[in-house]
Specification:
The chain has 8 helices and 17 strands. By secondary structure, it is α/β, with parallel strands linked by helices. It is globular.
Amino acid sequence: MSPTLTVADFDYALPPELIAQHPSPERGGSRLLHLDAQGRLHDRVFADLATMLRPHDLLVFNDTRVIKARLTGHKASGGKVEVLVERILEADRALAHVRASKSPGPGTVLRLADRFDVTVLGREGALFDLRFPGDVLDLLQAHGATPLPPYITHAAATEDDERYQTVYARTPGAVAAPTAGLHFDTAMMQRLEDAGVARAFVTLHVGAGTFKPVQVERLSDHVMHAEWYTVPQATADAVARARAAGGRVIAVGTTSARALESAAAQGQAQPLRAAQGDTQLFITPGYRFQVLDGLVTNFHLPQSTLLMMISALAGMEPIRRAYAHAVAERYRFFSYGDAMFIESPLAPSQSTPAPSAHSHPAASGPAA
């Protein structure tokens, strides 16, 4: 990564009315902006994706499931609190963001949802270690709310409980959806299978840090948030099969991309092997992708780490043109918005890739 890159290099003007507040009526009903490997732009609809992929291509999905992580309540003093569970540590313990007029100290009891009490055990950085009176997932499912992104202005409703979740979600733990996957319905999945497009899954539990702005000027000074990921051996094997058959490896969402590249950055790219652990991989221009040939993704916030990632995949200038085009053509942006299909101009099989010096994957190593 160039030491001269700053957050200002990844800014763009977005009219607020282009931020999608609700999903399209049908999951596959969105538009699709195609940025091909030659840097050309094509306006399409999402259903076209099935005709743009080839037999033996591999789509890699993130099967994390969004939990109802948001709770409201009060302290014994009556002061209001808002809790957003970030990570479950044990069956009855979780790390959470806590908003309150005064930061609660160890031993503080918080009454949540007017149904149960949690006890503050301590802090880990900006997060609070909370003890729940029972199974965290069960209590959240019964009393929590879907944690919509901060740029969506309405409170979570029944529609959001369904639509802010992929149809293939199965491993609970995310507090934000892998939103590129929201466009896929069961009919599209079947069309892709019938067309000979393979599928595989990783798990990356998306944290609230995905919405955190980069708060330093130089990218080289940014400390990336950590997220837990798993790349199973079955997925590593699927990547190898796709490569052997001449197919491409295409991630559905930046979270799938981050999981695959985190495993590869452990020195396991040739061949890719199973891995799991926390990752702080920060992908910026200058990074050479080791696994990905393409990416299905939504449009990302200005100055965000996700915009930096796709700029690394496609090039900064092509992404600037694509986003200017999307604004001019009134595409819908962010989690409930439209999609992009990005084909990398340099496939990993055509280069000798190496992570940039600013990549920091911290993983526990191979996993069965």
